[in-house]
Design a protein that fits this description.
This protein is mainly alpha-helical. The chain has a single domain, classed as ACP-like (Non-ribosomal Peptide Synthetase Peptidyl Carrier Protein, Chain A, Orthogonal Bundle), CATH 1.10.1200.10. Helix content is 45%, strand content 0%. The chain contains 2 helices and no strands. The longest helix is centred in the C-terminal third of the chain and has 17 residues. The protein is elongated and about 40 Å long. The termini are far apart. It comes from Phreatobacter oligotrophus. This is Phosphopantetheine binding protein.
């Protein structure tokens, strides 16, 4: 996924939507992450806030990976 403004100036807490990510882009990102990490985002996590920054995405992935290991 590419952002119109590029990614060079982004930090973990940058707002990805302000950087140009769209709702469609967030769905594409979610599907790519589910495939790459062999996880599924539960309905409780499917919100704009989760995909608003690299930091929030990372936290969600860490939580899902921990649940997967503990299962």
């Amino acid at each position: 996924m590419e952002l119109p403004g590029g990614v060079d100036g982004l930090v973990d807490t940058s707002d990805l939507y302000e950087a140009g990510m769209t709702s469609f882009g967030s769905v594409q990102l979610m599907l790519a992450l589910e495939e790459a990490f062999d996880i599924e985002f539960p309905e409780r996590m499917l919100n704009r806030r989760l995909f608003s920054s690299i930091a929030s995405i990372t936290a969600a992935l860490e939580e899902l990976q921990a649940e997967k290991v503990g299962a």
